[in-house]
Amino acid sequence: MYCIHCGQPRPFDAAFCPHCGRALDIAQPPPPAAAGLPGSRIPLVPWRGGQVAYGILLVLVSIVPVTLLATALGSLAGRYDVALSVWTSSHLMGLSILVVVWALGLRRYRVNLSALGLGAPRMPHTLWPLVSLGVMVASLVATIIYSAIVSFVPTDILLPPEIPGEIAFPGPAAAATFQALAVWTPLTEEIFFRGFIFAGLAPRLGPWRAMLVSALVFSLFHLTLGLLVPVFITGFLLAWLYRQTGSIWPSILAHAGQNTLAVLATLYWV
């Protein structure tokens, strides 16, 4: 049993929550994680802002050791040091994210993967792929428009940085780069930023403000001033897509498609 106000575990027959002190209606248990958030298709999850903030902090802290380890391993790869560093950091950050989500969400509240939005979309199967494609296109168009606008600013600091071609392994080994950046990264990031952060904030902030906050966190995690605006727009669109479909699979698809195009452009068109 969990408090419907703060999401913390509480005794079955308690009249007041031992964590937030607010009165409990013991005759009406809180809705399970599988239930939908009112006014939205996303699942109603038991974790709240406290767990979300702690999860963000833990993932931020993990960036330093992950970067150091990835750089150290990359230095052993000679001319492919950048490619190996990118591949390693992608997988280590993804693992860090999954551990945090499991510890603070799934294990703590004993809920299954459906609480993270890893269920079937609540939208006709002929429609949600088109909506995902629309979100991906909208995100790319927003990035192009932003880049065109800031190109008139007499400094390159606001421009999205160019992706170096060295991020990819050569020849057939480039498949490993696509696996890391276009499959693994979208999967783990959508679980964290949409399935964990957005869903955890939505009951308290409401869907729209939670979309804004989760998009801002998503943007800040990219640690580049030139990506702040375009990644914020992308994060907002992906959260909107999750809200509309009730599943993060469409968001993963849109995210993966955008990353795939970015890597393809880097390897073959830039």
Number of beta strands: 0
**Strand-residue fraction?**
under 5%
| N-to-C series of helices and strands | HHHHHHH
Q: Helical percent range? A: 55-70%
Name the overall outline: globular
Q: Specify the biggest β-sheet.
A: none
Calculate the terminal CA-CA distance, rounded to whole Å: 55 Å
Classification by helices and strands: mainly alpha
- Number of DSSP helices? 7
Blueprint of the fold:
Elements: H1 49-74, H2 81-109, H3 128-150, H4 174-205, H5 207-220, H6 228-245, H7 249-269
Helix pairs in contact: 1-2, 1-4, 2-4, 3-6, 3-7, 4-5, 4-6, 4-7, 5-6, 6-7
What does this entry show, briefly?
By secondary structure, this protein is mainly α.
Structural features, described:
The chain is mostly helical. It folds into two domains: 1-30; 49-269, no CATH class. The protein has helices at 49-74, 81-109, 128-150, 174-205, 207-220, 228-245, 249-269. The radius of gyration is 20 Å and the shape is globular. Mean pLDDT is 87; it is low at 26-34.
